[in-house]
Amino acid sequence: MLNEALLAIGPVPIAAGILLLLVAAVYTHRFSSSKSATAGKLKLDPETLQIPQTISPKIPYIGHVLGFVEDGHSYFSSLCARTSLPVFTIRMAKVKLSIVKPELARHLPKVRHFSLSPLVQQLFGRPLALGEFSRSLLKEEDEMSRKFGPEVSRLFREEFIPNKNLRKYVEEIDGYVLREVGAMKSGQKIFLEDWIFKTLVGALGKSLWGGDNGPFSDPEFYNIIKNLDTFLMNMKRLNAPFNFMIDEKLLTARRFVRERLEAFSFEEYAEKCARGSTDAIKETFLGRVRELCITYGAATGGWTDYQLLLIAGLGPNVMAASTWMFHHLADPELLTQVRSELDEFVKQSEGSIDVANMSEACPLVLATWYEVLRTHGGFSLGRYVHEDTTLAGKYLLKKGSYTLAPLRPHHQDRQIWGAAADQFLPGRFLKEDGSLDELQRKLRVYGVFGTLCPGRYLAVHMAMALTVRLLLAFDMTPLNGSHKPPSENKDTIAGLATPALDVEVVMRRLENAPEGLEISFKSNRQEF
Ligand code: HEM
């Protein structure tokens, strides 16, 4: 087992091995397509297939591990830049990784026998303290458990893609955001990332998990959301092989969150809900996730595990992207332009804005959002190879290895983004006439393996609602000097890098802040 192998090789490789695995486990718990779960073995002709060439590290054996510990995801991108090979293999301790460069990425959706669940089990099992049942479900050792991942994915798509659901979520989430913004006093000091985590993850959690009747509405749970933050941002430390190696604060936070989720009684929740009928409750997202878990044999503990996996996968990305938004919008010139776009939009909409119209009404805000995703979307997406398979009809990917697609080479490709690909340019996604262009289709932050994040529409709309609410109501002044975007945290293990440090700002309410601004999502379009 990987964990045991890592245990045998000492602390630095352990840390890096864990990091490596977390890099590869990106939010999903499924096969890349339902076909791959049932397809028979491929007929592979070793004569015509190449095993991707191995690139050796400068320091034998541990060089790649150290490179990753030092540079995080950028290490994989720098390896890509060093070679002309379109795909190559590296070894990190006992783990074999095939790294795929952008030129072959279009073939990834067609590769069979990719899987994430067994990997997720290896990675998240220890840090989230998953129970035996959940681990065995994620290992996908039998036909039944192999159906679980695709079923869950289907449920996500059905829940987050249709416009009528989006409408409901955007309005609910905005309601929670509005409450937080409304509660902020003029002159209050906040740590930006901390506040955004609390607001967005709290709002998303409440909206998905039972609203005011669910676990996220428990005041104690809500207060300790900061601990949830600490806990989720320290998964790597929680993966240490023995508890005595882990900071007690992290263990306490994890225990607290787990106990709160476990104490939540679905039956009581069903009774508390206005409609009260168990059938109606079963139709809710919470009810359907639970139903699915139970169908696959999960006990209450298993259901808690799955909720934790969902929280760990859903919240941090949108939180990180929104935090970067405010760091970049602190640029005075950009802020003035963006505020004037927003003011005009509110005026034209007579105080009731539809966030779905923002791409036309506020192209610079959207362009800044895309530039945030491009600039900070330098993470890697990965899959576990559970049978020998082929890439582009030419390369052999061996059973038991991992395939990794670093996104930085996509997002900094000069042929797509031009000579200034390494700079943050808020207007990059605008045409000459100031309207939004189609360049955002070249972004890869939502997936490269053929499946795309089902929460992508919700993510942009919740980020827009937060941006509108905060920018129109408050001025932010950093306590320590000028507000420059911090560097990226190299320890971010999955998804958008978080800022390396949190910035403390003083919030001053604007005198001309619009009163009673309504935010909705009415349109039938989904174009972001
Ligand atoms: C800027 C914000 C976000 C980014 C960059 C992002 C990115 C991703 C990526 C790269 C994946 C993996 C896709 C794959 O390899 O198949 C994913 C999966 C997923 N995301 Fe997001 N995500 C974001 C926000 C959200 C939000 C707000 C939600 C909440 C609804 C969400 C829900 C999900 C779910 C449920 C999956 C798993 C899908 C499956 O199992 O098929 N995401 N996301």
From TrEMBL:
SUPFAM superfamilies: Cytochrome P450. The chain crosses the membrane at residues 6-27. InterPro entries: CYP450_monoxygenase_sec-met, Cyt_P450, Cyt_P450_sf. One of its GO terms (molecular function) is heme binding. Coiled coil: none annotated. It comes from the Eukaryota. Pfam families: p450. The keyword Transmembrane applies. The keyword S-adenosyl-L-methionine does not apply. Keywords: Membrane, Transmembrane, Transmembrane helix. This is Cytochrome P450.
